[in-house]
What we know:
The protein is 51% helix and 12% strand. The chain is mainly alpha-helical. The model has no long low-confidence stretch (mean pLDDT 85).
Amino acid sequence: xxxxxxxxxxxxxxxxxxxxxxxxxxxxxxxxxxxxxxxxxxxxxxxxxxxxxxxxxxxxxxxxxxxx
Length: 68
């Protein structure tokens, strides 16, 4: 696993780095939890009509990053 965390002394921000494979796995897992495909999510974004707040939040997180 290539996750790296770094804490700064003056605040509580955490920087997490993941591999491309870990990112893809997490994105697909999130899509599965919502019962959506990436194509469906991308279409919702194109129409600006998301099926849920969770779907919109996922698009904000992964939109345009998966080349499917």
